């Protein structure tokens, strides 16, 4: 049996751009993608702390150390510049894989610079 668990989370990143006239997706600083283990074009869930919107899109790689978090296309209606977001990626695991399961939780400062990583919520 496969079960779906949180694989990675970028916690409280700040939206730096909201581009309606764009093909779609969420551009994320490449350093943050690597830290979280999220791949370009991987499905992500976005939870907007500012307004409660929750939506699905995919990640695209942004310039490293840019701090970019750009919500694009139709999703731009769901996030404004300055909104705090949680970006999550999930994966399916079988019972054997769950024995060594640990999520990759990434935390940032006000500039979307990685400050720490953990596998447990404090």
Automatic annotation (TrEMBL):
<keyword id="KW-0210">Decarboxylase</keyword>
<keyword id="KW-0456">Lyase</keyword>
<comment type="similarity">
    <text>Belongs to the PanD family.</text>
</comment>
<keyword id="KW-0566">Pantothenate biosynthesis</keyword>
<feature type="binding site">
    <location>
        <begin position="73"/>
        <end position="75"/>
    </location>
    <ligand>
        <name>substrate</name>
    </ligand>
</feature>
<dbReference type="GO" id="GO:0004068">
    <property type="term" value="F:aspartate 1-decarboxylase activity"/>
</dbReference>
<keyword id="KW-0670">Pyruvate</keyword>
<dbReference type="GO" id="GO:0006523">
    <property type="term" value="P:alanine biosynthetic process"/>
</dbReference>
<dbReference type="Pfam" id="PF02261">
    <property type="entry name" value="Asp_decarbox"/>
</dbReference>
<keyword id="KW-0068">Autocatalytic cleavage</keyword>
<feature type="binding site">
    <location>
        <position position="57"/>
    </location>
    <ligand>
        <name>substrate</name>
    </ligand>
</feature>
<feature type="active site" description="Schiff-base intermediate with substrate; via pyruvic acid">
    <location>
        <position position="25"/>
    </location>
</feature>
<dbReference type="InterPro" id="IPR003190">
    <property type="entry name" value="Asp_decarbox"/>
</dbReference>
<comment type="function">
    <text>Catalyzes the pyruvoyl-dependent decarboxylation of aspartate to produce beta-alanine.</text>
</comment>
<protein>
    <recommendedName>
        <fullName>Aspartate 1-decarboxylase</fullName>
        <ecNumber>4.1.1.11</ecNumber>
    </recommendedName>
</protein>
<dbReference type="InterPro" id="IPR009010">
    <property type="entry name" value="Asp_de-COase-like_dom_sf"/>
</dbReference>
<dbReference type="GO" id="GO:0005829">
    <property type="term" value="C:cytosol"/>
</dbReference>
<feature type="active site" description="Proton donor">
    <location>
        <position position="58"/>
    </location>
</feature>
<keyword id="KW-0963">Cytoplasm</keyword>
<dbReference type="GO" id="GO:0015940">
    <property type="term" value="P:pantothenate biosynthetic process"/>
</dbReference>
<comment type="subunit">
    <text>Heterooctamer of four alpha and four beta subunits.</text>
</comment>
<comment type="pathway">
    <text>Cofactor biosynthesis; (R)-pantothenate biosynthesis; beta-alanine from L-aspartate: step 1/1.</text>
</comment>
<feature type="modified residue" description="Pyruvic acid (Ser)">
    <location>
        <position position="25"/>
    </location>
</feature>
<keyword id="KW-0704">Schiff base</keyword>
<keyword id="KW-0865">Zymogen</keyword>
């Amino acid at each position: 049996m496969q079960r779906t668990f949180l694989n990675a989370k970028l916690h409280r990143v700040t939206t730096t751009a909201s581009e309606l006239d764009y093909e779609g997706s969420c551009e994320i600083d490449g350093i943050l993608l690597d830290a979280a283990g999220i791949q370009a074009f991987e499905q992500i869930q976005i939870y907007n702390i500012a307004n409660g919107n929750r939506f699905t899109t995919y990640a695209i790689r942004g310039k490293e150390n840019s701090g970019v978090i750009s919500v694009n296309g139709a999703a731009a209606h769901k996030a404004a510049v300055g909104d705090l977001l949680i970006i999550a990626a999930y994966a399916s695991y079988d019972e054997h894989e769950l024995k060594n399961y640990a999520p990759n939780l990434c935390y940032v400062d006000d500039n979307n610079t990685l400050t720490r990583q953990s596998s447990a919520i404090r």
